[in-house]
Amino acid sequence: MQDNFTAPANKYPWLEKVEIASVVGSIGGAIASFMLNQAAVAAIPLSVTVALNLTNRRILLDHLKQHNLATIAQVLQEQVKTQSNLERLSEELGTFEQQTEKKHGEAQAGIKLLDEHLQLTNNNLQQARENSDRSIAQLQQQDANIQNQLQTQLETLNQQLEQLQQQTNMLVQEQNNRLMNEQAKIARTVDALRDIETCTQSLRINPISANAFFNRGLSYQRLGDREAAVGDFTEAIRVNPQYAEAFQSRGLAHADLGDKKAAVRDLREAARLFFESGEIDKYQIARDLGKKFHDLDSPSEAEALTEVAYESSMAGSFEDIALESLFS
């Protein structure tokens, strides 16, 4: 607040001069009364001085009072302004509190909505977690089932592979056996051809060798050339009409060619010759063969019987041929 106080000396300069003069006069009166030894002389200026001083003090008090009143008015004016400002601030505070309360309510509503959304999110997460756990359990069960199926399929495949291996081994064995049989057959064929060549060379040297004709006939018989075999067996019988083995072999060749009567006739002649020579075992074999061929009803049965006999003849003697024929 600005100070508007003005000193009386400034407002009334003559009064200050008078007061100074009275002070000087009082001092002079005091000196004069001291020198004249008269107290009345000193009292007059002193009274004037006191009066002037009182007047000056009153004026100063009035001026100070006015100044205080102005100051109080100014303070009251400022107080009114302050009160107005306070009322305005109160209104603004009320408005701010209302806005704050409104915002607080909105914040509470937002927090509540956020809590509800968070709760819903938690529920969804819990549901998703439960669904995920169920899905994982289902996947684990499916994985276990798939592993069991794969294990079963693997065992089945292993069994099939084992069976396939066994079948492969059997096929390989059969193929090997067939190959060995073919090789043996080729070897027998080569041996038969070699024997034929050997017998032919012998016949060139000795054209009347019954054994050479007979052995070459056996070789033709092994090769499956029944007609050539019959021809050589016939030549052997021509050279040696008592050749029982030649009759028996020619009878088997006739049987293979389907000539049942010729086969039975040659086998009976072979049995007779074996009997006359005392070879009873061979006699019984030839007789039984002749009887068996005689009792056959169809050419196919005769072919089957002679086939067994020929297969046996490639590996052994006439006794083996007969036994194989009888018990087949």
UniProtKB/TrEMBL annotation:
Residues 72-178 form a coiled coil. TPR repeats lie at residues 210-243. Pfam families: TPR_1 (PF00515), TPR_8 (PF13181). The keyword Coiled coil applies. Gene3D superfamilies: Tetratricopeptide repeat domain. The keyword Cytoplasm does not apply. InterPro entries: TPR-like_helical_dom_sf, TPR_rpt, Ycf3. It comes from the Bacteria. GO terms for biological process: receptor-mediated virion attachment to host cell. SMART domains: TPR. Keywords: Coiled coil, Repeat, TPR repeat. GO terms for cellular component: cell outer membrane. PANTHER family: TETRATRICOPEPTIDE REPEAT PROTEIN 6, UDP-N-ACETYLGLUCOSAMINE--PEPTIDE N-ACETYLGLUCOSAMINYLTRANSFERASE SPINDLY-RELATED. This is Tetratricopeptide TPR_1 repeat-containing protein. It comes from Chroococcidiopsis thermalis (strain PCC 7203). The lineage of its organism: Bacteria, Bacillati, Cyanobacteriota, Cyanophyceae, Chroococcidiopsidales.
